[in-house]
Design goal:
The protein is an alpha+beta fold. It is 51% helix and 15% strand. It has helices spanning 5-23, 27-33, 38-47, 65-75, 80-90, 95-100, 103-115, 230-266, 278-306, 312-337, 339-342, 348-354, 365-379; strands at 120-123, 139-143, 146-157, 164-170, 180-186, 192-194, 208-219, 223-224, 268-269, 272-273.
Length: 381
């Protein structure tokens, strides 16, 4: 599904103004308080941002992948923590349900997810399980009409406020990915507890924490797909999530480039604006070129996904290139701003810290390289 051109253009304009007028002025406050103001969350709900990727029949906006990426580009022009507030509802927290849920599961959960009344989280990573996601140790043992779930999940985004978790747990004796199943686990089930939020390098205001499952009785009706299909569901979810994060990375890069141009035009050294110095121009040129290339790759891959094509390779390539690109752009921005880029007043050092995470979650850059190589070998080039 996708919106008509006029409606979508109005949405983009609204999001762009929301970012510029409501979110950017609050960036320093969010960094200091390590929290998103509640009234901003309510405004996000009113704009429909929690339901971007959920079908209209369940109360969402039902955006196509291209449309979602274009919205993500706009949201990238401010502190990533704002997007993270609803990001799990749009991506990894809801898409397993969207892709593999039964009609009854969708009817029960998706309308509340779309409005933001329910915040979702995706619980895959564990203390000893990160990039090797097929090595999940959390276990769900069938006991009549329930599964008894035990295990600990780590670095779970929005765990502090989530009321529904998509949990990957081992249900069989088969080793590796084949023994992993997916479950919808409400926070209020007895035995579910949340750890203290972690202190992080960046993205203040976006919380991650442990989620502990202590013999939680999960109804069998809450299983997503068949037993042993959890890993496949997770990988399908991550394909979409990687494109979304790629688009956000491009948006942050565009913001940084605009900030660099504005600063370089005003800042004078050796009797003229630093924008007239060729070595400054070289950093701006490199940043702009890489950003344009990433934007083109993201949108082209999103179009291919909307057409139903296999984009496992292309999604991984977009994620690798866009997230590495924004890291380089942020580094150059600090250099262009000089001493001003290293102190907090201009926000450049904050974005420099914020974007570092993009190269880790939704699969590290090294995992993307492995996927790209594997798929390229499969395709014969």
């Amino acid at each position: 599904m996708s919106l008509d051109v006029e409606t979508f253009d109005a949405l983009i304009d609204t999001v762009r103004r929301f970012v510029a007028e409501r979110l950017r002025p609050l960036e320093a406050e969010v960094e200091e308080a390590d929290a998103i103001p509640p009234h901003i969350v309510e405004e996000m709900k009113a704009l429909g941002l929690f339901g971007l990727s959920i079908a209209e029949e369940y109360g969402g906006l039902g955006l196509s992948m291209v449309e979602e990426c274009r919205v993500a580009l706009e949201l990238g022009r401010t502190t990533p923590a704002f997007r993270s507030t609803f990001g799990t509802n749009v991506g990894i927290g809801s898409q397993g349900l969207v892709m593999a849920g039964t009609p009854e599961q969708k009817a029960e959960w998706l309308p509340k997810i779309a409005t933001g009344d329910i915040v979702t989280s995706f619980a895959l990573t564990e203390p000893d399980v990160g990039s090797d996601s097929g090595a999940v140790k959390a276990r769900a043992v069938r006991d009549g009409d329930v599964y008894r779930l035990t295990g600990t999940k780590r670095y779970i985004t929005n765990a502090d406020k989530a009321s529904l978790f998509t949990v990957m747990a081992r249900t069989g004796d088969e080793p590796g990915a084949r023994g992993v199943s997916a479950f919808l686990v409400p926070r209020d089930l007895p035995g579910v507890s949340i750890g203290e939020p972690e202190k992080k390098m960046g993205q203040k205001g976006a919380k991650v924490a442990d989620v502990i499952f202590d013999d939680v009785r999960v109804p069998a009706a809450n299983r997503l797909g068949a037993e042993g299909e959890g890993f496949k569901i997770a990988m399908r979810v991550l394909d979409r999530g990687r494109l979304h994060i790629s688009a956000v990375s491009v948006g942050v890069a565009e913001r940084l480039i605009a900030d660099c141009v504005a600063y370089a035009t005003e800042r004078k050294q050796f009797g003229k604006p630093i924008a007239e110095h060729q070595l400054i121009q070289a950093m701006i040129a490199d940043s702009k070129t890489e950003c344009l290339a990433a934007r083109a790759l993201v949108l082209e891959t999103a179009r291919a996904k909307d057409e139903g094509k296999d984009v496992v390779l292309e999604s991984a390539a977009a994620k690798l290139f866009a997230t590495e690109m924004v890291g380089r752009v942020a580094d150059r921005a600090v250099q262009i701003f000089g001493g001003a880029g290293y102190i907090a007043d201009y926000g450049i050092e904050r974005l420099y810290r914020d974007v570092r995470l993009f190269r880790i979650y939704e699969g590290t850059s090294q995992i993307q390289q492995l996927i790209i190589a594997r798929e390229t070998l499969k395709r014969g080039g």
